[in-house]
Amino acid sequence: MPSRILPRLRFKLGPVILLGPGKTDLLEAIDRTGSISAAARTMDMSYKRAWQLVDEMNRHLDHPVVVAAFGGSHGGGAHLTPFGHELLTRYRRMQTSLETALAEDIAWLDEHVVKTE
C-alpha cells in the first residue's frame, strides 16, 4: 500500500518560493488550457493570484517561463516557453528522485502515524 505521507519539493529564494508544487501545478494547467485565466479557474484560484505567481517566476529566473498575449483578434492566451517546459520536466524529475530517495524513511514514518481511517 502506498504511503499516505508525500514529500514535496520546494525551492526558496529568500522569502520567495521560486518553485514548488503549486507553481508547477499552475504551469501544467497553463500548458493544458493555453490560458492563465482558465488555468486559475481549474485550480480554484483567482486570476490575480495566478498572474502574480507567473510574474514571480518570470522575474526571478533568467528566462521567461510563461509568455502571455493580451486581447487581440484571438482573445489572448498564454503558453509555456521552451525554458518553462524544461523547468517543469526537471522539477518533476527531481520530485521523483526525492520520493525514491526517501521511500524507506517515509515508509517507517508512515508506520508510526496514528491511523485515522
TrEMBL record:
Signal peptide: none annotated. It holds the Pfam family HTH_1. One of its GO terms (molecular function) is DNA-binding transcription factor activity. Residues 26-84 form the HTH lysR-type domain. InterPro entries: LysR_HTH_N (IPR000847), Molybdate_resp_trans_reg (IPR051815), WH-like_DNA-bd_sf (IPR036388), WH_DNA-bd_sf (IPR036390). This is ModE family transcriptional regulator.
